[in-house]
Amino acid sequence: MDPLSLPLDCLISVFTFLDEDDLITASYVCKEWHEAAETPWLWRELCLHRWGFCNLSQLLSDADRYTWKRYYLRRSSLEMSMKSGRSGGDYTCKSLKGHKGRVISIAYLVENNTIQNSWNSAPIVCSASSDGTVKAWDIHKGVNLWSSSGQNPLTAMFTDPQQCVVGAADSTGTIKLWKGKTGEELASYSSGSSQSTLLFFSMDRSSFLMVGTALGSLLALSSPLLSEVSRHVVCDSFRLNVLLSSPDKKWILTASKESSDFSPKVFWSQSVCCPVKDEDTVCLNLPVSGCSAAVFLPSQPARLAVIHSEGLGNQKALTVFDLSLKKSKYKEEPQAQQVESFKLDLSHSHSDMILQAKGNSTILVTDGNDLKVYTLKGALIANFKDHLQPIVSLCVDNFRVVTASRDLSLRVLTWRNDRDKGLTLESQYHLLGGSHTMSRGFTQVTCDYASIVASVESVDGKDALKAYVFNS
Q1: Among 11, 58, 278, 391, which has the minimal tally of Cβ within 10 Å of its Cβ?
Q2: What values do phi and psi take at 302, rounded to 5?
Q3: At residue 120, does pLDDT exceed 80?
Q4: Distance between CA 255 and CA 265 in Å, rounded?
Q5: Rg of the chain over all Cα atoms, to the nearest angstrom
Q6: Is the dihedral of CA 293, 294, 298, 299 positive or negative?
Q7: Residue 216's CB: how many other CB atoms inside 10 A?
Q8: How many Å apart are CA 466 and CA 456, to the nearest integer?
Q9: Share of the chain above pLDDT 70, in %
Q10: What per-residue confidence (pLDDT) applies to 349?
């Protein structure tokens, strides 16, 4: 039988053996082949085979605009750009200037966390500075959208994309909240702490701001009103500078990097955000000493990894716990079951090490200039030595890892599932941040699905942002 005269169903069945390039080529043969090659089901299978999961909401709601073919071609093109990183072709870079002091924090207010988002919205990034201002930036256009009025030097910042608000704390302990779209001030609260650690927290459709103070207290404030909900003394005289929430939003970790003897403490979030009169707060001290870094593993509801002191000297170990709540007739008892524990072979032992995780069993640790990747069992998967100066910030998502260094470069690495080795990380390329005569290196980095934003410390004290937007 002439292949050009096959029925449509037969053509579609044959085309299931083609990859995307062959499908596109086949679509130019004739009208019948074009109709078969454009079948949404074929492109849907290609998408699910390559990525395993795709967000269907927009594809199903507007099938004329968001087709499976368009999804596949745009996402694969974007990932190719992010993987190769050719200047001018794969991405554009914009310098965002306007601060008159050091940038102490950057965060996305509007982010493209899926390929569908990148069709509709331009990402907005907020930055806070020692010049006392918060600024919002459209990183596609490279323009400042609004700036808060100057006040005391800012020490911490957070963003709440769901409510579209930005919050920051200054050196006097004043915490303020602004509308993300306009910069209009919404609320103010005085914590009395010269150094505050901020964690935005959402639970049961209610939003809260957790504040760690310089004197070791944990405050829970409602958002966006900033009214005090509860207050808890965690550690005396040490700054509470580690605040994390679990993926299931049921646990809050508190710790101080300033004491090697203080044990990290976890709180059951319900008892912090919705305290009941005359009932004790549900909390637990973890059975380790000190906390150099911590992270909740993103694919587990409440699996926590902590780097802590081990034995004499500066030896560090990483211990993993699963947190749970045992309920009896009269009380609720928190429990921390140790899953794994192993010693870390680190060249540099200091409080600035960074700990991140991917999935439920992959751990990333910075060690001076190096990035080390471990399994949950403590096996060293990889040790990357791409930087000439210490890594100061780390961003991890499902596609890539970006490291920022004082050597004024960002290193981009990408994940790959190897049939024999399992999950592996591959070093790809550098993104450069400018001249060493004008800058002292990168200080922070953050990413969304299609962009990377980093802060650069300037020699003249007026820090800038570098925004790398990838093309699809």
Answers
A1: 278
A2: -155, 55
A3: no
A4: 6
A5: 24
A6: positive
A7: 22
A8: 7
A9: 93
A10: 63
Quickly count: other Cβ atoms within 10 Å of residue 98's Cβ: 17
Backbone angles phi and psi of 350, in degrees to 5: -155, 170
**With pLDDT > 90 as the criterion, what percentage of the chain qualifies?**
58
Task: Indicate the pLDDT class of residue 16, thresholds 50, 70 and 90.
Answer: confident
Using CA atoms, how far residue 417 sits from 22, 79, 330, 404, 414, in Å, is 24, 15, 47, 24, 10
Residue 224: cis peptide before it, omega within 30 degrees of 0: yes
Q: Who has greater pLDDT, 295 or 61? A: 295
Q: What pLDDT, in 10s, does the model give residues 136-186?
A: 999 999 999 999 998 899 999 999 988 899 999 999 999 999 999 999 999
SS3 label, residue 326: strand
Q: Higher model confidence: residue 420 or residue 462?
A: 462
117 pLDDT band, cuts 50/70/90, is low
- Which run of H or of E encompasses 44? helix 40-51
User: Of the candidates 345, 247, 297, which has an alpha carbon nearest to the alpha carbon of residue 306?
Assistant: 297
Q: How far apart are CA 369 and CA 384, in angstroms?
A: 9
Say how far apart CA 47 and CA 35 lie, in whole Å: 19
Extract the tokens encoding 176. 């303020």
Distance CA 438, CA 457 (A): 9
Pick the residue with more confidence: 465 or 471? 465
Alpha-carbon distances of 394 from 56, 251, 410, rounded to whole Å: 30, 23, 10
Residue among 166, 172, 146, 168 at smallest CA distance from 157: 168
Q: What are phi and psi of 312, to 5 degrees?
A: -85, 160
The pLDDT tens digits for 225-271 are 999 999 999 988 899 999 999 999 999 999 999 888 889 999 999 99
Q: Across residues 200-224, what is the average pLDDT?
A: 92
The tally of CA atoms less than 13 A away on the side-chain side of residue 87 is 7
Counted residue by residue, the chain has a size of 472
Q: Residue 61 pLDDT more than 60?
A: no
Q: Which two tokens stand for residue 367?
A: 């060690």
In b/e form, how buried is each residue of 7-45, taking b as 16+ CB within 10 angstroms? Answer: eeeebbeebeeeebeebeebbeeeeebeebbebeebbbe
d(CA 7, CA 32): 9
- Closest to 356 measured CA to CA, from 369, 373, 381: 373
- The model's pTM is 0.88
- As a whole number of angstroms, the distance between CA 152 and CA 172 comes to 7
Q: How far is CA 370 from CA 9, 393, 411, 430, in A?
A: 55, 12, 11, 15
Q: Could you count the other beta carbons within 10 Å of the beta carbon of residue 95?
A: 12
